[in-house]
Design a protein that fits this description.
Distance between the termini: 18 Å
Number of helices: 3
Radius of gyration: 16 Å
CATH architecture: 2-Layer Sandwich
Order of helices and strands: EEEHHH
Largest sheet: 3 strands, antiparallel
CATH topology: Double Stranded RNA Binding Domain
Structural class: alpha+beta
Number of strands: 3
CATH class: Alpha Beta
Length: 95
């Protein structure tokens, strides 16, 4: 049975494409679609883990990564962002 690990994938739209980021290893990729950005990041992290030395993997690994929402006073943001300032963060795991 193949070992599986779960790492964080932060993906955001940038222009016409998407930027994906794995904060555990400080690796970033991009793609034209959400799925492409996610697949590109998964491949980059797998290749890093396959080719980097154990010392480099240990040095780059950030074991305590937390993604969370935060509530702040946002009168200015509401003016600038309009209805987007009312968004409630949705927690989701991309597996």
């Amino acid at each position: 049975m193949e070992d599986k690990c779960i790492f964080t994938a932060v993906i955001e739209r940038e222009g016409r494409g998407y930027i994906s980021f794995c904060p555990e290893f400080d690796i970033a990729c991009q793609g034209d679609s959400l799925a492409e950005a996610r697949a590109s990041l998964a491949e980059a992290v797998e290749r890093f883990l396959e080719t980097a030395s154990l010392a480099e993997i240990r040095a780059r690994y950030h074991c305590e990564v937390q993604i969370t929402g935060m509530e702040i006073s946002c009168a200015r943001a509401a003016q600038v962002l309009g209805h987007h300032a009312d968004r409630v963060p949705v927690e989701a795991k991309l597996f």
